[in-house]
Specification:
Number of strands: 9
CATH superfamily of the largest domain: Formyl transferase, N-terminal domain
Shape: globular
Distance between the termini: 26 Å
Bound molecules: 5-O-phosphono-beta-D-ribofuranosylamine
Number of helices: 6
Helix content: 25-40%
Radius of gyration: 16 Å
Strand content: 15-25%
CATH topology of the largest domain: Rossmann fold
Strand order of the largest sheet: 3-2-1-4-5-6-7
Amino acid sequence: MGILISGRGSNMEAILVAVKKQNIPVNPTVVISNNENAKGLKIAQRLGVKTEIVPSSGFKGSRWDYDRKIIRVLQKHEVTPNNGLVCLAGFMRIISPGFIRKYKNRILNIHPAILPSFAGLHAQRQALDYGVKFSGCTVHFVDVGVDTGPIILQSPVQVRDGDTEETLSKRILQREHKIYPQAVRLVAEGKVTIMGRKTIIRNLDR
Ligand code: GRF
């Protein structure tokens, strides 16, 4: 498994800790950042996972040229389109159709809203501005749209009177740290089947 980050890396950390503690059957071989200053890089190293930087600022080529570099790094760390999983965890780039096609149904993302509401940037602010009473978070497969792929798990979070973008984001983030590792486990254990827009989740323990 490879994890792609751009910043803080708290979802990455939640996944890496859960993989170890809860025996999730994946092998996190690399964390890749497009930003050399991403705080998550140090966390990954502390947790014993190799890190790589593929700088995107100042990169002159196309989106696909950039993603080909990422793919080369993934493959170097044995995250292949057949057996690998790629988790986007606060990776602040739109990835190209070529990358998505190559790792078809192997790329996951977390979004801090109940999709399809409030896709794109600043989802928590969008939710507050709209005045919804519940928001939350979504783990989904990545397809060629922005935050549009088949949904694996969602978790609702109540919006409180007086919430600010910061307080709501914080409560949603706590929930993100629960459902992202759960979704990784379900996919890694082969319990998620994609049927068109939908996923069907088979929980063998129940
Ligand atoms: C999270 O809110 C996630 O939902 C969004 O970007 C943020 C990343 O935070 N995609 P972190 O880097 O995982 O702490």
